[in-house]
Amino acid sequence: MSKPVAFITGCSNGGIGAALVTRFVAKGYVVYATARSVEAMSDLTHENVRKLAVDVTDDESVAVGIKQVYSETEGIDVLVSNAGYSHIGPLLDTPFEEGLKVVQTNFFGFVRLVKNVLPLMGQRKRGTVVAIGSILGEMATPFQGFYNASKAALHSYTETLRMECQPLNVKVVLIAPGSIKSNISAKSAYTVPEDSFYKSFEKQIKHVMYQSQTKDYGVMDTDEFAAIVVGKISSPKPPQYLSIGGFTTKMWILKWLPRTTAEALIWYLAQQEPKPGTYGPV
Protein backbone atom coordinates (compact mmCIF):
# COMPACT_ATOMS: atom_id res chain seq x y z
CA MET A 1 0.00 0.00 0.00
CA SER A 2 1.40 3.40 -1.01
CA LYS A 3 2.00 6.12 1.54
CA PRO A 4 -0.68 8.81 1.95
CA VAL A 5 0.13 12.13 0.27
CA ALA A 6 -0.08 15.61 1.78
CA PHE A 7 0.25 18.88 -0.13
CA ILE A 8 1.10 21.92 2.00
CA THR A 9 1.58 25.56 0.98
CA GLY A 10 3.66 28.17 2.77
CA CYS A 11 6.49 25.90 3.95
CA SER A 12 9.34 28.39 4.28
CA ASN A 13 11.95 27.70 6.97
CA GLY A 14 10.90 28.55 10.51
CA GLY A 15 7.17 28.79 9.88
CA ILE A 16 4.04 26.82 10.65
CA GLY A 17 4.09 25.13 7.24
CA ALA A 18 7.58 23.69 7.73
CA ALA A 19 6.56 22.34 11.14
CA LEU A 20 3.47 20.73 9.61
CA VAL A 21 5.63 19.06 6.95
CA THR A 22 7.87 17.51 9.60
CA ARG A 23 4.92 16.20 11.59
CA PHE A 24 3.16 14.73 8.54
CA VAL A 25 6.37 12.96 7.52
CA ALA A 26 6.61 11.49 11.03
CA LYS A 27 3.07 10.14 10.51
CA GLY A 28 4.21 8.27 7.41
CA TYR A 29 3.10 10.69 4.70
CA VAL A 30 4.87 11.69 1.54
CA VAL A 31 4.67 15.47 1.69
CA TYR A 32 4.76 17.90 -1.20
CA ALA A 33 6.03 21.06 0.49
CA THR A 34 5.60 24.30 -1.40
CA ALA A 35 6.71 27.90 -1.18
CA ARG A 36 7.42 30.65 -3.68
CA SER A 37 10.98 29.40 -3.95
CA VAL A 38 12.51 25.99 -3.25
CA GLU A 39 15.50 27.70 -1.61
CA ALA A 40 13.20 29.02 1.13
CA MET A 41 12.62 25.39 2.26
CA SER A 42 16.28 24.40 2.67
CA ASP A 43 15.70 22.98 6.17
CA LEU A 44 13.31 20.32 4.85
CA THR A 45 15.63 17.46 3.94
CA HIS A 46 13.73 14.24 4.72
CA GLU A 47 13.57 11.70 1.89
CA ASN A 48 9.75 11.77 1.95
CA VAL A 49 9.59 15.51 1.30
CA ARG A 50 9.13 16.70 -2.28
CA LYS A 51 9.73 20.42 -2.67
CA LEU A 52 7.90 22.49 -5.29
CA ALA A 53 7.93 26.20 -6.11
CA VAL A 54 4.28 27.28 -6.05
CA ASP A 55 2.91 30.82 -5.89
CA VAL A 56 -0.70 30.65 -4.64
CA THR A 57 -1.46 34.06 -6.17
CA ASP A 58 -0.74 32.72 -9.68
CA ASP A 59 -3.28 30.49 -11.45
CA GLU A 60 -0.75 28.72 -13.65
CA SER A 61 1.74 28.12 -10.84
CA VAL A 62 -0.92 26.39 -8.73
CA ALA A 63 -2.23 24.34 -11.66
CA VAL A 64 1.25 23.17 -12.68
CA GLY A 65 2.16 22.20 -9.13
CA ILE A 66 -1.01 20.18 -8.59
CA LYS A 67 -0.65 18.52 -11.98
CA GLN A 68 2.87 17.37 -11.10
CA VAL A 69 1.67 15.78 -7.84
CA TYR A 70 -1.06 13.83 -9.62
CA SER A 71 1.38 12.68 -12.29
CA GLU A 72 3.65 11.19 -9.63
CA THR A 73 1.13 9.82 -7.11
CA GLU A 74 -2.32 8.27 -6.87
CA GLY A 75 -3.65 11.59 -5.57
CA ILE A 76 -3.59 14.09 -2.72
CA ASP A 77 -5.06 12.75 0.51
CA VAL A 78 -4.60 15.91 2.59
CA LEU A 79 -4.45 19.45 1.24
CA VAL A 80 -3.30 22.13 3.71
CA SER A 81 -3.64 25.77 2.67
CA ASN A 82 -1.15 27.51 4.95
CA ALA A 83 0.46 30.19 2.76
CA GLY A 84 -0.28 33.59 4.22
CA TYR A 85 0.61 37.25 3.95
CA SER A 86 0.28 39.78 6.76
CA HIS A 87 0.13 43.54 6.58
CA ILE A 88 0.17 45.90 9.53
CA GLY A 89 -1.21 49.43 9.38
CA PRO A 90 -4.43 51.45 9.49
CA LEU A 91 -6.85 50.88 6.63
CA LEU A 92 -6.58 54.50 5.50
CA ASP A 93 -2.79 54.21 5.20
CA THR A 94 -2.83 50.91 3.29
CA PRO A 95 -2.32 51.18 -0.49
CA PHE A 96 -4.96 49.34 -2.51
CA GLU A 97 -2.30 47.16 -4.14
CA GLU A 98 -1.04 46.04 -0.72
CA GLY A 99 -4.54 45.18 0.46
CA LEU A 100 -5.15 43.25 -2.74
CA LYS A 101 -1.95 41.26 -2.18
CA VAL A 102 -3.16 40.22 1.28
CA VAL A 103 -6.53 39.05 -0.04
CA GLN A 104 -5.02 37.35 -3.09
CA THR A 105 -2.73 35.28 -0.87
CA ASN A 106 -4.88 34.54 2.17
CA PHE A 107 -8.24 34.05 0.47
CA PHE A 108 -7.98 33.56 -3.27
CA GLY A 109 -4.86 31.42 -2.79
CA PHE A 110 -7.09 28.88 -1.05
CA VAL A 111 -9.76 29.23 -3.72
CA ARG A 112 -7.20 28.37 -6.42
CA LEU A 113 -6.14 25.26 -4.54
CA VAL A 114 -9.74 24.16 -4.10
CA LYS A 115 -10.54 24.64 -7.78
CA ASN A 116 -7.59 22.44 -8.76
CA VAL A 117 -7.78 19.73 -6.09
CA LEU A 118 -11.41 19.28 -5.03
CA PRO A 119 -12.70 17.89 -8.36
CA LEU A 120 -9.98 15.23 -8.22
CA MET A 121 -10.74 14.40 -4.59
CA GLY A 122 -14.41 14.23 -5.53
CA GLN A 123 -13.67 11.66 -8.22
CA ARG A 124 -11.90 9.46 -5.65
CA LYS A 125 -14.64 10.11 -3.06
CA ARG A 126 -12.07 10.81 -0.37
CA GLY A 127 -9.68 13.42 0.92
CA THR A 128 -9.28 16.13 3.54
CA VAL A 129 -8.96 19.84 2.88
CA VAL A 130 -7.52 22.05 5.63
CA ALA A 131 -7.68 25.85 5.68
CA ILE A 132 -5.41 27.70 8.10
CA GLY A 133 -7.43 30.74 9.12
CA SER A 134 -7.03 32.93 12.21
CA ILE A 135 -8.91 34.00 15.29
CA LEU A 136 -8.78 37.46 13.69
CA GLY A 137 -11.15 36.14 11.05
CA GLU A 138 -13.74 35.85 13.81
CA MET A 139 -13.20 39.07 15.74
CA ALA A 140 -11.37 41.99 14.16
CA THR A 141 -8.68 44.03 15.87
CA PRO A 142 -7.35 47.45 14.81
CA PHE A 143 -4.41 48.10 12.50
CA GLN A 144 -4.54 44.89 10.43
CA GLY A 145 -7.84 45.30 8.66
CA PHE A 146 -7.03 43.62 5.33
CA TYR A 147 -5.61 40.59 7.13
CA ASN A 148 -8.76 40.38 9.28
CA ALA A 149 -10.98 40.69 6.21
CA SER A 150 -9.07 38.07 4.21
CA LYS A 151 -9.35 35.55 7.04
CA ALA A 152 -13.03 36.31 7.61
CA ALA A 153 -13.68 35.60 3.93
CA LEU A 154 -11.63 32.40 4.20
CA HIS A 155 -13.68 31.24 7.18
CA SER A 156 -17.01 31.83 5.46
CA TYR A 157 -15.86 30.18 2.22
CA THR A 158 -14.53 27.16 4.13
CA GLU A 159 -17.76 26.67 6.05
CA THR A 160 -19.75 26.78 2.80
CA LEU A 161 -17.27 24.39 1.17
CA ARG A 162 -17.66 21.94 4.03
CA MET A 163 -21.40 21.68 3.48
CA GLU A 164 -21.07 21.37 -0.29
CA CYS A 165 -18.39 18.66 0.02
CA GLN A 166 -20.61 16.28 1.97
CA PRO A 167 -21.93 14.59 -1.22
CA LEU A 168 -18.30 14.13 -2.35
CA ASN A 169 -17.23 12.41 0.88
CA VAL A 170 -14.45 15.00 1.22
CA LYS A 171 -13.73 16.37 4.70
CA VAL A 172 -13.12 20.09 5.21
CA VAL A 173 -11.33 21.39 8.32
CA LEU A 174 -11.01 25.01 9.43
CA ILE A 175 -8.10 25.82 11.76
CA ALA A 176 -8.26 29.18 13.54
CA PRO A 177 -4.88 29.63 15.26
CA GLY A 178 -4.23 32.15 17.96
CA SER A 179 -0.72 33.23 18.79
CA ILE A 180 1.82 30.75 17.36
CA LYS A 181 5.60 31.20 17.51
CA SER A 182 6.98 32.12 14.09
CA ASN A 183 9.40 34.44 12.34
CA ILE A 184 6.70 36.90 11.33
CA SER A 185 7.94 39.76 13.53
CA ALA A 186 11.48 39.36 12.23
CA LYS A 187 10.18 39.90 8.71
CA SER A 188 7.89 42.80 9.59
CA ALA A 189 8.76 46.44 9.21
CA TYR A 190 6.38 49.37 9.46
CA THR A 191 6.58 53.11 9.88
CA VAL A 192 3.50 55.29 10.16
CA PRO A 193 3.47 57.88 7.35
CA GLU A 194 4.17 61.44 8.51
CA ASP A 195 0.81 62.67 7.22
CA SER A 196 -1.17 59.82 8.79
CA PHE A 197 -4.12 60.48 11.08
CA TYR A 198 -2.61 57.74 13.25
CA LYS A 199 0.92 59.10 13.78
CA SER A 200 0.34 59.31 17.53
CA PHE A 201 -0.48 55.57 17.53
CA GLU A 202 2.87 54.47 16.10
CA LYS A 203 3.91 52.46 19.18
CA GLN A 204 0.51 50.79 19.37
CA ILE A 205 0.57 49.87 15.68
CA LYS A 206 4.08 48.40 15.90
CA HIS A 207 2.94 46.54 19.02
CA VAL A 208 0.53 44.59 16.80
CA MET A 209 3.50 43.08 14.93
CA TYR A 210 5.26 41.80 18.02
CA GLN A 211 2.66 41.18 20.72
CA SER A 212 1.62 37.76 19.38
CA GLN A 213 5.20 36.54 19.83
CA THR A 214 5.44 37.44 23.52
CA LYS A 215 4.91 35.25 26.59
CA ASP A 216 2.32 37.74 27.83
CA TYR A 217 0.23 36.83 24.79
CA GLY A 218 0.52 33.10 25.55
CA VAL A 219 2.40 32.24 22.36
CA MET A 220 2.35 28.51 21.52
CA ASP A 221 5.44 26.72 20.25
CA THR A 222 5.24 26.07 16.51
CA ASP A 223 6.06 22.37 16.77
CA GLU A 224 3.49 21.87 19.53
CA PHE A 225 0.86 23.48 17.32
CA ALA A 226 1.86 21.32 14.34
CA ALA A 227 1.80 18.14 16.44
CA ILE A 228 -1.75 18.81 17.64
CA VAL A 229 -3.04 19.81 14.21
CA VAL A 230 -1.52 16.84 12.36
CA GLY A 231 -2.72 14.46 15.06
CA LYS A 232 -6.28 15.74 14.63
CA ILE A 233 -6.20 15.88 10.83
CA SER A 234 -4.79 12.37 10.39
CA SER A 235 -7.40 10.80 12.68
CA PRO A 236 -10.31 8.86 11.10
CA LYS A 237 -12.71 11.65 12.07
CA PRO A 238 -10.92 15.01 11.94
CA PRO A 239 -12.70 17.95 13.60
CA GLN A 240 -14.57 20.41 11.45
CA TYR A 241 -13.09 23.30 13.45
CA LEU A 242 -10.05 23.70 15.68
CA SER A 243 -8.80 26.83 17.43
CA ILE A 244 -5.62 26.62 19.52
CA GLY A 245 -2.76 28.91 20.46
CA GLY A 246 -2.30 32.02 22.56
CA PHE A 247 -5.27 34.32 23.20
CA THR A 248 -7.85 31.82 21.89
CA THR A 249 -9.65 31.58 25.25
CA LYS A 250 -9.90 35.36 25.55
CA MET A 251 -11.14 35.58 21.98
CA TRP A 252 -13.78 32.94 22.71
CA ILE A 253 -15.03 35.10 25.60
CA LEU A 254 -15.07 38.22 23.42
CA LYS A 255 -17.19 36.39 20.82
CA TRP A 256 -19.87 35.76 23.44
CA LEU A 257 -20.09 39.41 24.47
CA PRO A 258 -22.45 41.81 22.66
CA ARG A 259 -20.59 42.88 19.52
CA THR A 260 -20.55 46.57 20.44
CA THR A 261 -19.16 45.75 23.89
CA ALA A 262 -16.44 43.53 22.45
CA GLU A 263 -15.39 46.16 19.89
CA ALA A 264 -15.31 48.88 22.53
CA LEU A 265 -13.11 46.73 24.76
CA ILE A 266 -10.75 45.83 21.91
CA TRP A 267 -10.41 49.48 20.87
CA TYR A 268 -9.79 50.56 24.46
CA LEU A 269 -6.97 48.02 24.79
CA ALA A 270 -5.55 48.98 21.38
CA GLN A 271 -5.07 52.58 22.54
CA GLN A 272 -3.02 51.71 25.61
CA GLU A 273 0.72 52.42 25.73
CA PRO A 274 2.45 49.06 25.12
CA LYS A 275 5.11 47.76 27.47
CA PRO A 276 8.74 48.21 26.34
CA GLY A 277 9.90 45.24 24.29
CA THR A 278 6.47 44.50 22.85
CA TYR A 279 6.61 46.90 19.90
CA GLY A 280 10.03 46.20 18.45
CA PRO A 281 12.99 43.83 18.57
CA VAL A 282 14.14 43.23 22.16
Highlighted features:
single chain, 282 residues, 7-stranded parallel sheet, 9 helices, globular, SDR_fam, oxidoreductase activity, Sc_DH/Rdtase_CS, oxidoreductase, NAD-binding protein
Fold and architecture overview:
- There is one protein chain.
- This protein is 43% helix and 11% strand.
- Helix 1 packs across helix 7 and helix 3 runs parallel beside helix 4.
- It is built from 9 helices and 7 strands; from the N terminus they run E-H-E-E-H-E-H-E-H-E-H-H-H-E-H-H.
- The mean pLDDT is 92.
- The longest helix is centred in the middle third of the chain and has 29 residues.
- 41% of the residues are buried.
- The chain has a 7-stranded parallel sheet, sandwiched between helices.
- It is α/β, with parallel strands linked by helices.
Strand order of the largest sheet: 3-2-1-4-5-6-7
Oligomeric form:
single chain
Q: Could you describe the largest sheet, including whether it forms a barrel?
A: 7 strands, parallel
Average pLDDT figure? 92
Ends apart, CA distance between termini: 51 Å
The whole-angstrom Rg is 19 Å
Helical amount among residues, as a percent range?
Answer: 40-55%
| Helix/sheet category | alpha/beta
% residues in beta strands: 5-15%
Shape: globular
Given as residue ranges, the uncertain stretches (5+ residues, pLDDT < 50) are none
Number of strands: 7
Brief overview:
This protein has helices at residues 16-26, 59-72, 96-124, 145-164, 184-187, 202-211, 222-233, 248-256, 259-270; strands spanning 5-8, 30-35, 49-53, 78-81, 128-132, 171-175, 241-242. By secondary structure, the protein is of the alpha/beta class.
